[in-house]
């Protein structure tokens, strides 16, 4: 079973590693842990995201489904802090913060960002933390 010492790992394409490092580190505050010619490894809110150089990644109009990744915050304050960071740093927003499933047990606020390679990142907070999973 996963413990707090473990980290989830996700590898994604990046057309340009400098752009990826700027977006994830300078805009979202996710430190670059390691950098090589062909990839950067990031501390993505306590988990590991690796951006692999893929300059041939086609430029397409991104869609939230079927593929995106992100963080579900347990605390509303953490979600709100991210919203402020996005506003202050003018992070590219794919879908502005909005409320989904209002009035139900699954009610949550969601925000979707777009990285320089058109990977989509969804950040959420559920009113009822039992709905996180």
Automatic annotation (TrEMBL):
Pfam families: Glyoxalase (PF00903). Residues 6-126 form the VOC domain. It comes from the Bacteria. SUPFAM superfamilies: Glyoxalase/Bleomycin resistance protein/Dihydroxybiphenyl dioxygenase. This is Glyoxalase.
């Amino acid at each position: 079973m996963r413990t707090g010492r473990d980290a989830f790992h996700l590898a994604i394409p990046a057309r340009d590693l400098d752009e990826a490092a700027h977006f994830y580190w300078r805009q979202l505050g996710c430190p670059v842990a390691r950098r090589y010619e062909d990839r950067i490894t990031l501390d993505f809110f306590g988990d590991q995201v690796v951006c692999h150089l893929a300059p041939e990644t086609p430029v397409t109009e991104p869609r939230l489904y079927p593929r995106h990744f992100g963080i579900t915050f347990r605390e509303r304050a953490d979600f709100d802090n991210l919203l402020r960071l996005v506003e202050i740093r003018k992070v590219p927003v794919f879908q502005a913060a909005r409320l989904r499933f209002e009035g139900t047990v699954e009610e949550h606020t969601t925000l979707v960002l777009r990285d320089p390679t058109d990977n989509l990142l969804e950040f959420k907070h559920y009113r009822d933390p039992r709905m996180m999973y």
